[in-house]
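Teaching assistant here, posting this on the class forum so everyone can see the example we discussed in section. The complex has two components, and the goal was to see what a joint structure prediction looks like when all of them are supplied at once.
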Amino acid sequence: MSEPATLADRTPLVAELFHAGDLQRAFSHFSPWGVASMVVVCAQRQIATFIGNDIGPIQEAWLGLFAHLGPAKDGGRELGRNKIASLNLDVAPLGEINVIVRPLRASGDTVARVVYVRTSEQSTATFDSCVDAVHRSLESLTHAAYAQWVSGEAHRMVVERNAVVRAEVERAVTHIRGIDRLRSDFLATVSHELRTPLTSIIGYSEMLLRGIAGDLSAEQHECVAAIFERGEELQCLISQMLDMTRISDKGVLVVTPEPRDLGELSARAVRTIQWAAGQADVALLNEIRVGEFPIVMADPARTQQIFVNLLNNAVKFSPAGTAVRIAAELAPRRRPSGDLAHFGDEERDAVMVSITDEGGGIPPEEREKIFEAFYQVDGSATRRHGGVGLGLSIVRKLVEAHGGDVWVEGEPGRGARFCFTFPLAASA
Amino acid sequence: MVLIDVPRREVTIKLVYYGPAMSGKTTNLQQIHAFLGPTTGSELVTLDTRDDRTLFFDLLPVRLEVASRLELKIKLFTVPGQVIHDTTRRVVLQGVDGIAFVADSRISETRNNNESFANLRHNLKENSIAWDDVAVVIQFNKRDLPKIRSDADIDRIAAKGSEPIFKATAMNGIGVLETFVGLARSTWSKIEGRFQMQERFGVTPKDFEQALLSALPSRPWVRGDAA
């Protein structure tokens, strides 16, 4: 199968543009005006079309003429520098005849030459103007035929490629569906099987802590408290995994954005995370004031999830005694494109929220990967901080479902700055 | 990639007008076609849909004779700007020698300009064409519309990159030939640098420019009968 590339750069053969019969019908009426014959000559010195009188007797002469012209195809010599040639040929049975040779072009290349023969009774001037008129019509036809040829070829290629691609896609989709069903079943079963005993572990350890089964010594209390807390953590992870399964099952996440004030949304998230931050001795500085920014389009429950995931992350990776800063500014909806922002700054049609911590930061080569599911920058950090690497991938899906963008900035070793945007209600 | 047929002393170069949808790529070619007039035998081929959106490409071949030593064919192409036609864009870009990036001057179109420019870089890479091997000029089109980037803004953008920048109102033919000549000039100098046309054919950049200008009307390049 030829590549479409060759289509733009390809020159069709004259036979791909016309049917000889069509030309014959279109131009046969010109013979009374002095054109005895009109011959379209294309590659390999073939004679494509004869029009007008029978020129059988002068076949020989044509062949001589072609030898004189050289091969015509693809912008051949074209009679040296002359685009149009007027020649007198000595042909045995007819004597001297007058011919005009003109190139026929498509896509800027010569696809053929046309040889016009003058009738002996016609004047040169009339013959010239007649040839001019005929050739112009022929050029228009060629032009239209070329456009049609490109469309036809493009269509053919698209259809061929579609068939191949469709077969591939169908195979892939069947395969993926199978895997996806297995995965969903697996996750659902595993989560269920994990949750059932976990509920008992959490429930019984809570009962023990409350002294329902009798008083515990200080040491016993500490042990049971550890069981209880780790159990809760495990439950949280399992719900996150289930959340991710639900998102992936639908493919595209459905959110219902409504006009909201960002200050209120961030304050609510900060209240949720306050306790965990206090435990880790990390200060939360929320600089977004209620009513400070224009109203954005946000699904409140989903926005809470975005904030909480990012804040949890920031708190988790912050050393004790540091602060996490939450700020916002008007910005373009898409992340800054750096060098590629050739055409100036984009319209600031969104609010960008940034969450900055003073932790280890994210190395540049990891900045895209951390938003992929189950990805962890540093495996050992997981053991220290917990988590399975789903939080950020959920965040990305949620932000993108809102029509925003999420990315991470910051120098490694000097903290990370997670940014995400929400489109302004006015621009949505 | 420039096509050099040494025995026939014939050179074909490929120039592509790139840019976001509706930025005026086809209009540029239509205007060049109108400027060249019917005498050059350069017929504009447009392949568009009923609503005038380019479907595959437009093609305007221009033939020049350079210093009686070289037959030069310049093939001007446009690509479809709509995002969905990315495959076609990549295909038309193959073997390109020079690119005119037609940007829409309106501030609201900045994102589309940036995205299309990034797409151009990406598609060149996909075609294994190094950015430094092609000539690129940028045209800020639609200078007659309200809410556009100011001249000072454009100067600042020009200072940031190395590509020559032209301002145009292609609908009225303003800046169209300046862009075309600028693109052809940049392209020739790239080709000269890579293929030594002066040594090979005895054709200097000046010869090239003279041949090009002789095919065009004399300045100022404004079309009185413009649409």
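For the discussion questions: Residues 1-5, 43-55, 70-82 of chain A have pLDDT under 50 and may be disordered. Residues 124-209 of chain A form the longest helix (86 residues). Think about how each of these relates to the inputs above.
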